[in-house]
Amino acid sequence: MQVEIWSDVVCPWCYLGKARFEKALAGFEHRDEVTVTYRSFELDPGKAETEPLLDMLTAKYGPRAAGMEQRVAGLAAAEGLGYRTDREIGNTFDAHRLLHLAREKGLENEMVSALFRANFAEARPVFTSDGLAEVAEEAGLPRGEAEAVLADSSRYAEAVRAEEREAAELGAGGVPFFVLGRRFGVSGGQSAEVFAQALEKAWEASAGS
């Protein structure tokens, strides 16, 4: 059974959702027969400048922004995840292009994990070519191949756009968005229990088809 996850590397609920889904998958009887694929989704595709995250959130939500981030940090800590609120926010299109390279190399999960860790737990830059190449290398990708993709803006660009179009066609207005067996959709960073129920339901449906 295939599970597709539309997500963005700067989405905190995607970060939490990945951890919670993986907890559910680890306890799923048929986990060895589940293939997980990460699909591209940009929360802010028109973003041009990199800026401090709290500046952006404060402009959007006012003085409650810092408290909102602290609450998410608490949820992350409960999942055993690092979470820094002093990170930056920027355009993620190049990160998604690199994820397609990682998929071809069989290192997609490693690359998603490395991007999440660098951004959320370490507040490292994932919006520059140097920063992305470093993260790619940590994920096991040859740095030279990552740099070649980053230097050519056309590489994997259409693949990213195609997955974003598919998200829209499926009705995914936000992320994370999980599609299980092409039959069931789960939206948001749900609990491990919700994901476990969805896995069971999707498996039963696929087995009966």
Automatic annotation (TrEMBL):
Gene3D superfamilies: Glutaredoxin
Residue span(s) of domain DSBA-like thioredoxin: 2-199
Pfam hit, one: DSBA
PANTHER family in the record: GLUTATHIONE S-TRANSFERASE KAPPA (PTHR13887), THIOREDOXIN SUPERFAMILY PROTEIN (PTHR13887:SF41)
The protein, known as: DsbA family oxidoreductase
Organism listed in the record: Amycolatopsis rubida
